[in-house]
Write a structure and sequence with these properties.
15 strands; Rossmann fold; 38% helix; 3 domains; 3-stranded antiparallel beta sheet
Amino acid sequence: MRMKSYFANSFRVAMEQARKELGPDAMLVTTRTAALEARHLGEYEVVFAADLPADQESAPAAPKEAAKQPSPPGQFTKPLFPQISAGGAPILSAELGTMLAEMRRQLKPGRGAKQASPERTPSAAGQSHTKDFLNELLHRDVSPEIARRLISATENRLRLQGHDRTKLRAALSEEIQDAIQVDSRLTAQYAVGGPIILALVGPPGAGKTATIAKLAVRQGLTARKPAVLLSLDTLRVGASEQLRCYASLLGLGFQVVETNRALEQSLEEHRNKEIILIDTPGFTLSDLNGACDSAEFLARRADIQKHLVLPASMRSADVARMSAAYQVFKPSRSIFTRMDETESFGAVLNETISSGRPIAFFCAGQRVPEDLTEATKRDFATLLLPCPDAPSSQLSVSTLTEPARPVDTLQTAA
């Protein structure tokens, strides 16, 4: 008996190829979705089997000279399975013979895909679950292209061989985690022995000032590292005063710098500090399209790590537009605020995959410093794809934040 796989985009085409090559008695063995590495050959892999001609099943071995002659049309050069010689006549093992007899009984020519093993074919239930999860991703504002890509990768991960919703959800969660990057470290890309310098950039109202205060507590006070807060935000009325108030309550140094030259001098002046946090104005798109001195200055400074702060509650299209505009700052990380104001999180996924920037932190709520957490892949996948059977408290973004530090909680206005 000979078995062979045929790749095609439809079962009918594969069957025609098999019957043409193996003959009208070719029997269907199984059909399945083609492996990823063979997907270019066809969407489906269909396996057929055919009996060897009688003269090849029982005839004694031919001399070596005869073996060199080409086989007549329609015959096979050698069987797929090894033969065992018993009493001079080649036979199949008893176990293999039983298996082939059962295969012949169940798989008659012409019966087609209906006789394929149920556990080897994509079930209707599995396809229904896949469609449900695709719709769930789209409902959560994940872009159609990314959603389909994730579902396709999930199918390849499982081979879609009769799995249930739980396994599909777990596999999809793993694909989401593989698709994003996270990195909350604040020590990379800095000169040895120099301070950690972090600048937050982003659109107006994104929550940069409140996030600066949270980072000052987490990365400065709690870690017992000397820190200073600098403000470049002279455009918004009272912006500098808000950050000054935070610095006073936290016992940190504070300074307003109105020009790039002043900022450069201040950075040099505070080189003895371990952490320098810079708050920047919320520039509009028109500001960024024009000459933006602050963007040019910060982009040139490789020792300043730039984090782009974006609201997770913003529409995905608006997030993409803001991200593209703020690319002039050359941000290397993303921080998403207002995580407690949405249940979609598709905009976060779309932006992270499209930009390739790792997520550093999530912010949810107004408390300083509790409502700030380091981003993890698993936590984000849980937010984007929550389990419907989980208690509602487990689906809250606030549960991702770390326990309160031994610092008085501050209430922010942003």
